[in-house]
């Protein structure tokens, strides 16, 4: 899978990744926090091909503002965990209301996820791992063949996502991090904010895991 991080033009927006199966050209975009013509061009330049999925790690505003425009432009299917699906219709839950309420246009989810679901781009498998804690419906996407975890706002380089927002729960976050560090072997970790890391690095150096996850 070819994986490209797309610059959305402002640091308040979460990291946005384009995943392309090079054999078939089928692609997915993770967490399009913003969408306009320039960003459409950036996706095209990165080789977007046929956009099959808009994959959301959770429903916060800084991950979803681009969903409406991108779906309109491409017809791709919007994919989110069942417990965050209503964030797409509710600026209060998405926290858009107190930040940029005018930016959130309501959009219906097309595919509702549960833990363990599998999605495919060509023959490349993406496994959904439910990781509640930051929100109830937070997920990580594991790209099996490439050993990549797209970790949203669950696992960050050196820390973890906040648990004090609507739907957050610290005990669940600890269990979710345990689930990730129990995966076998090393993975590249592509988080929702800040820089990429690896699972091995986070197993030993992440201050939240060292302090909270025994
Ligand atoms: Zn975020
Ligand atoms: Zn978030």
Description:
The chain has a six-stranded mixed sheet, with helices on one face. Strands 7-8-9-10-13-14 form a six-stranded mixed sheet. A two-stranded antiparallel ribbon has the order 11-12. It has 214 residues and is an alpha/beta fold. The chain has a single domain (2-212), classed as 4-Layer Sandwich (Metallo-beta-lactamase, Chain A). The mean pLDDT is 96. It starts with a strand and ends with a helix. It contains six helices and 14 strands. A hairpin with a 5-residue loop joins strand 2 and strand 3 (26-30). The protein is globular, with a radius of gyration of 16 Å. The longest helix has 12 residues, at 170-181.
- Helix-strand makeup class: alpha/beta
Return the CATH architecture: 4-Layer Sandwich
The overall pLDDT average reads 96
* Total of helices: 6
What is the strand and helix layout of this fold?
Layout: E1 2-6, E2 16-20, E3 26-30, H1 37-45, E4 50-55, H2 61-64, H3 67-74, E5 77-81, E6 111-113, E7 118-121, E8 124-130, E9 139-143, E10 148-152, E11 155-156, E12 159-160, H4 170-181, E13 188-191, E14 197-198, H5 199-205, H6 207-212
The structure holds zinc ion (2 copies).
One zinc ion binds next to helix 2.
Short recap of the structure:
The protein has 214 residues and is α/β, with parallel strands linked by helices. It contains 6 helices and 14 strands.
Key terms:
single chain, about 210 residues, alpha/beta, Metallo-beta-lactamase, Chain A, 6-stranded mixed β-sheet, 14 strands, globular, binds zinc ion
